[in-house]
Write a structure and sequence with these properties.
about 400 residues, alpha/beta, TIM Barrel, two-stranded antiparallel ribbon, 16 helices, about 40% helix, globular
Length: about 400
């Protein structure tokens, strides 16, 4: 039986932290992946927006790619929502993926319908909060650098220019704008925009609670989404990032003491039917040209020593571009969260959280599709096509597909 690979978590430059255009996504990135793995489906899940399906005309781009390559890749409409969760007396953003099937005779029409309803209102509120947060960050940066009035105006102008198609201002936009204005202050800018801690006493970091009056709480939001869009599906994104019991959880959140006990949090969400699934990660296969090399050759190609055993550090993927991608600790995410999903009657989805080419202060480059496995057929069925479920994930320790 053929294994089907589906990547239900990817980004374009409608997200605040991704430079990848929709043209490059469908003309270069996906074709490159399709040549190597049997990719069956993808979802563009930009942060707090579905502009890829309206402004970007994603469905038309997909149709052109499938016609050109004689493929049948499917596209699932999605977005990644950043919602506030109270943990340890603090607030943090936990990301939830929202998917919706094509119900209006086309993804563009369905997306336009969603933008006019509850989901559109929720996304607009989240963007307003995040934009205010990063405007405060820019003001703090201007104060720390003691900028003149004209330099402050220039800073905000460059930030608006850098955001491009994104409706959200991100930390990356602030950092790049400052770097453009003050190229000789890269190290100081990096320190200023990092989270507080250690010897850093000049952080411009803005905690969620500093943005007043615009909180988007997760509980009522997820309840409302579940009631309004019964055909849709809410999935918790990359739970390992927030998991207090996971060795490789987000270090920044660990420093702030706001990690969550996922063994209790996921059942809490599932019991109240606020989510239908959690995102788990399959194996990230080593590219074919690396797989054939011996140990010495792998080390010469910057592959970490522990790649064969645990696959947890960046691997050099492309000899020509030198791009690297981030690798999750697959043994934990492929077993613990899978069992957590089974115990709580949740579906499992897979996604690599691809953000395109790495930018200063941005996300590392992760290849679309690599290692993703459709462990549950429901997301694929939401694209309007049914198929035989994929075979189970290989046994632990196996590095093959």
């Amino acid at each position: 039986m053929e294994t089907r690979f589906c990547d239900w978590h990817t980004h374009l430059n409608f997200s605040k932290d991704c430079p990848l255009s929709i043209e490059e996504y469908f003309r270069e990135r996906l074709p490159r992946v399709i040549r190597d793995i049997p990719l069956a489906g993808v979802s563009i899940t930009d942060h707090n927006t579905i502009d890829a399906y309206t402004v970007g005309k994603a469905e038309a781009h997909l149709r052109q790619m499938n016609n050109r390559l004689s493929t049948q890749v499917k596209l699932l409409l999605g977005t990644e929502l950043s919602l506030d969760v109270a943990a340890g007396g603090h607030k943090q953003h936990v990301h939830f993926l929202f998917y919706h099937p094509n119900t209006k005779g086309g993804l563009e029409k369905t997306a336009e319908w969603l933008q006019q309803g509850l989901l559109g209102d929720i996304m607009a509120r989240i963007r307003t909060q995040n934009n205010e947060r990063h405007r405060i960050m820019a003001k703090k940066a201007a104060n720390y650098l003691d900028l003149k009035e004209e330099d402050t105006k220039a800073l905000h102008s460059i930030i608006e220019m850098e955001r491009g198609l994104s409706r959200e201002i991100g930390r990356e936009h602030v950092k790049r704008a400052l770097t453009i204005l003050f190229p000789s202050l890269n190290e100081r800018i990096h320190t200023m925009l990092s989270r507080p801690g250690g010897k850093n006493d000049s952080s411009c970091y803005v905690a969620t609670e500093e943005v007043k009056g615009l909180d988007v709480p997760y509980l009522p939001t997820l309840e409302a989404l579940a009631q309004e869009y019964r055909m849709g599906m809410v999935v918790m994104a990359h739970p390992w990032r927030y998991d207090a019991g996971f060795e490789f959880a987000d270090r920044n959140k660990a420093k702030e003491g706001i990690l969550i006990d996922m063994s209790r949090f996921v059942p809490y969400l599932a019991e109240r039917r606020l989510i239908k699934g959690i995102e788990i990660y399959g194996y990230y296969p080593i590219p074919n040209y690396l797989r054939s090399m011996d140990r010495e050759d792998l080390l010469e190609n910057n592959v970490p020593r522990n790649i064969v055993d645990s696959v947890r550090r960046p691997v050099r993927l492309d000899r020509d571009t030198g791009r690297q991608f981030r690798v999750k600790h697959v043994r934990y995410t492929g077993t613990t969260y899978r069992m957590m999903a089974i115990e709580n009657d949740l579906i499992c989805t897979g996604g690599n959280d691809s953000h395109g080419e790495e930018l200063p202060g941005g996300k590392p480059d992760i290849p679309i599709g690599y290692g993703c496995r459709e462990t549950d057929p429901l997301p694929y069925h939401m694209t309007g096509v049914r198929h035989t479920p994929a075979r189970p994930i290989p046994a632990l320790g196996s590095m093959t597909r």
